[in-house]
Fold this protein.
Amino acid sequence: VGRNMDEIVRCVEALQLSYQKSIATPANWPNNHADMLVNGVRTDEFKGSVFLLPTVSPEEALENFPEYHTCDVPSKIDYLRLVKKEDVEAYENRTKEAA
């Protein structure tokens, strides 16, 4: 299966994140969202970010990832919630220290 080890490692990491932290990795992760419009301003601060799964409650999201960003969608439903790469790493560090 496959000849590109980088892609295999990326897939394994994406599956682990989804299973362990209720996070979905978007297409082209971790090079995604390199240029994004936030509050009318173009930014690259969300490069490598991931999405919280819809199963994560707003309370859990605020507790574990207080700096998450909700993307504006036409339906105005707050389900596309981006978490920056460094916030995921900080969460991992906190959970390791607590264990």
Q: What stands out?
A: The two ends are 36 Å apart (CA to CA). The chain has three helices and six strands.
